[in-house]
Design goal:
Blueprint: H1 5-12, H2 32-51, H3 54-69, E1 74-78, H4 80-91, H5 93-97, E2 104-108, H6 126-136, E3 143-148, H7 154-165, E4 169-174, H8 180-184, E5 187-190, H9 205-224, H10 241-255, H11 259-268, H12 273-282, H13 286-295, H14 300-304
Helix pairs in contact: 2-9, 3-9, 4-9, 6-7, 10-12, 11-12, 12-13
């Protein structure tokens, strides 16, 4: 890593995400609608960049699911926008997939304060990443995802280096080619989205690409872990009125049962959607449904095909 500002400036000048675009030098003089069209056109390229990395993304997801099936955790680490996106993705897993809050974790350089306010110097410390992972009690069953648009952020690179040395699965998500982050990880994912509309503002296309990939990692991993039945979120946690209604709709879509039967099943299953569906489709009681799901490690489709005793 560079030790002086001149070295860092020279390094940043080599990054695609930091490239200056002369053709946009007078963008501030354009009508707002024209700028909006330019930005929208820029964003169209993001899914295409992600598509080019789908084989690498899928391989990383399969490896992650295998670790999590053994009890491992999914841990995101990043600084700034990248860190915030990891925290966001992690925080959405409990209500969506009924995961324990410790199962998917988002760490941002500088701690929770950095989510809303920049913590100067935090992203420059590999040691801080090691300390954060150590505090979590990192194990070889865990998956650590370092996220950095530049692919050089010391906090993200340090996290991946340390995690790999400890035997954990490592994924490096960057938005530049030949990045130190991808090279340090077992699974390198480089979604090259090109120069930004505003020079170096990686909260734009790079941030959008990171959001898309993190969506894939968490969602597809949860599908592999049996958190869904088809495209239904059967492990949804009904923590508010909207989710209560969604729970009943999911049971209805999965079973075609009348409302009265759905309410009876959900009440007997203590509100667990997956259990209620199994009770209705297999015509079994709540304890038996719980036993079958435990035997199938939570996979509803497998539990449905368990022979009756």
């Amino acid at each position: 890593m560079p030790t002086t500002y001149s070295e860092l400036r020279a390094q940043l000048a080599t990054l695609t995400t930091e490239a200056f675009r002369p053709e946009l030098a007078e963008i501030d003089r354009l009508p707002t609608l024209d700028i909006a069209r330019l930005m929208n056109d820029e964003d169209r390229a993001v899914p295409e960049a992600v598509e080019r990395q789908l084989p690498a993304i899928a391989a990383a997801i399969d490896a992650t699911a295998a670790r999590m099936a053994r009890g491992g955790r999914l841990i995101y680490l990043g600084a700034g926008t990248a860190g915030r996106l990891g925290v966001l993705d992690a925080s959405e897993c409990p209500p969506t997939f009924n995961t324990d809050p410790t199962q998917v974790v988002g760490l941002i350089a500088g701690g929770p304060t950095a989510i809303v306010k920049a913590v100067e110097g935090a992203e420059d410390s590999k040691e801080l990443a090691v300390a954060d992972l150590t505090a979590l009690g990192l194990t070889a069953d865990d998956t650590v995802v370092g996220v950095s648009a530049s692919g050089r952020t010391p906090y993200a690179v340090g996290a991946v280096e340390h995690a790999r040395a400890q035997g954990a699965l490592t994924i490096g998500l960057a938005c530049n080619e030949d990045s130190a982050l991808a090279a340090a990880a077992e699974h390198g994912i480089e979604v090259v989205t090109g120069p930004e509309l505003l020079t170096g503002s990686t909260r734009l296309k790079a941030g959008t690409a990171q959001k898309l990939v993190l969506n894939m990692i968490s969602t597809l991993t949860m599908i592999r872990l049996g958190k869904t039945y088809g495209n239904l979120m059967v492990d949804v946690r009904a923590s508010n009125d909207k989710l209560q209604a969604r729970s009943r709709r999911i049971v209805a879509l999965a079973t075609g049962a009348p409302d009265e039967q759905i309410e009876t099943a959900l009440a007997a299953a203590d509100g667990e959607v997956k259990n209620a569906i199994l009770m209705i489709l297999a015509d079994i009681d709540a304890p038996t449904a719980a036993e079958r799901l435990a035997a199938s490690e939570g996979h509803l489709r497998a539990a449905l095909h368990t022979p009756a005793e």
